[in-house]
Specification:
Elements lengths: L2 E2 H8 L3 H9 L7 E2 L5 E3 L1 H15 L4 H8 L6 H35 L5 H5 L9 H9 L3 H11 L4 H23 L7 H17 L5 H13 L1 H8 L5 H17 L1
Antiparallel strand pairs: 1-3, 2-3
Helix pairs in contact: 1-2, 3-4, 9-10, 10-13, 11-12, 11-13
Length: 253
Amino acid sequence: MSYSVGQVAGFAGVTVRTLHHYDAIGLLAPSERSHAGHRRYGDADLDRLQQILFYRELGFPLDEVAVLLDDPEADPRAHLRRQHDLLTARIERLTKMAAAVEHAMEAREMGINLTPEEKFEVFGDKDPEQYADEAEARWGGTEQYAESQRRVARYTKEDWQRIQDQTADWGERYGTLMAAGEPPTGEAAMALAEEHRQHICTWYYECSHEQHRRLGEMYVADERFKAFYESMRPGLAEHLRDAITANAARHTS
């Protein structure tokens, strides 16, 4: 059984011109010719083309592909094992990259600015689970983090817009409170601190007052979160931390 160049191009999803080029450079010469001199490809040729396309998909240049396929020490099974290992590694890397993109989307929707290191860590040698580990530690353990992940995975664009609108409205009201000179230990500030905690409970996970107090400390200690709150009004991060602390104390005393 043999196939024309047009049929093979259709099978493999490549152009006839590509197959002519592979023939011209000696990478894939058809094993047969018709009486009219037209290229005819047999099953062995198709197997070789599959190998070529696998290696090309993995980014190997044509000259290296030729060397690999013509290696007298390697049999077809060795090629398949090598390609399987390379493809598995690529899948793992692409999965990590997809997770990084999801992380970036979530951060953008939440108004959190990623550091340059976080933006590019997927391309380097850093542990891809670094941010996940950090998040789990900060948000009180894997149960809360897992709950947050379960919830946000279901959110639509409209949900994220609602979250942003609520956050912006809260920030405006907190800024007005500060402009009026309200102390962080006052009733108005503690009420907005409690609203902040309830926002987390509603959209992300059940946040206790003690967990909220730890978050308040993080909003000041972590430059990324501090910058987020400071963008609403200078000094808001510290003011909010103190309001959260006061609110937690009155609920846990």
